[in-house]
Amino acid sequence: MPNRREFIGMSCAGLGLLAAFDLKALAASSGTADLSLAEWQAKGLEAGFWSADSILFGAVKYLKKPDEYVSLATGFGGGIGRKDLCGYVTGGVMAIGLFMGMVKDEKEKRQKCQRLTKEYVDWWEKNYPIHCGEIKHPCNYQDMGAEAAAFLQSLFERESGKV
């Protein structure tokens, strides 16, 4: 019999996997590819994703990357299932890595990724606790995700010259 902590971790992973099965259907039913990262992220929450996979889902759809990438974030929800580092933080860092597109050791891209990651984490710490266990309830989970997604989109647009 798993203890409470193990049960929460397994539940988090299981819920993420169930939502991932409906990922293709969700993307197909959206009707548009011109949504903001925050709008895609909200659709991810509506579909049952948690923090990490919903924000990565938003980035995947916004950046037009393969849907399968979202599964990378499943285990990070719920503060890695331990109310530790918030999934919006870890999912956002994954989204920055996805944006950078580094597939081999490229010093310039790594430095840029580190700079953007620092900027994102600094922004997060100014607005919310970085650990799930420190986030006071009731909290507006949807607004937290929307604000994080909007910040990430602004980083992506600025860095790609779309601003």
Give an account of the 3D structure.
By secondary structure, the chain is an all-alpha fold. It has one domain. Helices cover 67% and strands 0% of the residues. The chain is built from 8 helices and no strands. Helix 1 packs antiparallel against helix 5 and helix 7 packs antiparallel against helix 8. The chain is globular and about 40 Å long. About 13% of the residues have low confidence.
Secondary-structure blueprint of this entry?
Elements (H helix, E strand, L loop, with lengths): L3 H18 L1 H7 L7 H10 L4 H13 L13 H7 L3 H14 L6 H21 L13 H20 L3
Distance N terminus to C terminus? 53 Å
Q: Low-confidence segments, ≥5 residues, pLDDT <50?
A: 7-27
**Given the structure, what is the number of helices?**
8
What is the average per-residue confidence, as pLDDT, rounded to a whole number?
A: 85
Strand content: under 5%
Write down the domain tally.
1
Give the helix proportion (percent range).
55-70%
Give the biggest beta sheet. Answer: none
Brief sketch in words of this structure:
Helices cover 67% and strands 0% of the residues.
What labels describe this entry?
single chain; 163 residues; mainly alpha; 8 helices
